[in-house]
């Protein structure tokens, strides 16, 4: 697309082995960007193969656990050493639960602290580490766009979502706003994307009971779950100069779900 200008930009995507992050990495490659995929899973290497096939620029995969601050520092340093700069960071890695410990929509008095900590560790602390190191590089080069995957669950209470997920994503929104304030004078923009329910490995209807899927669809005016490719247009806009006066925003992409004042439970 002529209106999107991330060709030859150096892009990092965390959580890029599957779902939304993978779709964003593919879309960036198709726009001619140099793409670095990072994920805790080894399957990031296979994912990078698919991204390479989608574009013409260089594609590199990195195994990195965002909960490890040293690993994140190394990741960001490796990206800048290999590509000379870092123009766009999609900070997207996240989890919504801990199998066996955490039930979506479960009661607060039954919530194991270990499950709370684990979700916070990935979704909030992991984002903090990534934000810190991307900001370090982008402040120095005095340019950059950081796009964080938050969630509509960070903007309101949602009946079928876990406590730590909602709390972590609300905190993510605060972190994005605060970082945008500091980084604006360095020419670095920071925005959040807030997707509604998207069919992926964490958010998909696959393992969920049919009734739960139907309940979600009832709460989406467009009457369907999102697909990862539904998120990429907004992601590319926030990455590119087409959004050059947009920072500190939270951009909802949810088939209209947030327009409803009440969700059927
Ligand atoms: P997904 O499970 O398909 O992708 C998440 C990726 O993050 C996986 O590849 C996973 O291996 C990786 N990851 C998990 N922990 C990590 C860690 N510690 N370090 C590095 N990588 C790690 O799920 P998705 O739905 O594509 O999720 C992407 C983002 O979108 C998450 O932040 C999620 O909270 C957010 N989100 C998803 C939905 C949805 O309905 N799917 C809705 C709103 C927001």
TrEMBL record:
Ketoreductase domain ranges (all copies): 9-208
Keyword Oxidoreductase assigned: yes
Pfam families for the chain: adh_short_C2
GO molecular function terms listed in the Swiss-Prot or TrEMBL record: oxidoreductase activity, acting on NAD(P)H, oxygen as acceptor
SUPFAM superfamilies: NAD(P)-binding Rossmann-fold domains
Protein name: SDR family oxidoreductase
Keyword field: Oxidoreductase
Keyword Zinc found: no
InterPro entries, sorted: KR_dom, NAD(P)-bd_dom_sf, SDR_fam
Similarity comment text for this entry: Belongs to the short-chain dehydrogenases/reductases (SDR) family.
